[in-house]
Amino acid sequence: MKVCELIDNCSFKLLSGGDLERSISSVYSCDLLSWVMAKGKNDTAWITVQTHNNILAVASLLDFSCVIIPEGIKVEAEVIQKANEQEITILSTELETFEIFKIMYEAGIK
Known about the structure:
alpha/beta; Udp-n-acetylmuramoylalanyl-d-glutamate--2,6- Diaminopimelate Ligase, Chain: A, domain 1; 5 strands
């Protein structure tokens, strides 16, 4: 699955853009940043309710495909601007984490 497919087929909203053709090889959900840094891996779609600048550092460090903010949680303009500068893709959705995992699983991501 590619990041753009979440936008085109699953009604995810693009908040900041990086490489929308980038493949997603895994999905991970956690809000404890140190845990994400220890467990995350390249090409992951990371689901988090965190919306501060530190998520950008973690996403960049681990080279994630995208960051997904669930449940329509608002992301401040400052974070979106910085994500655009760093070419980090942030997506937003009204879906809950379980529903996002279901979409990924049905797309073959496990």
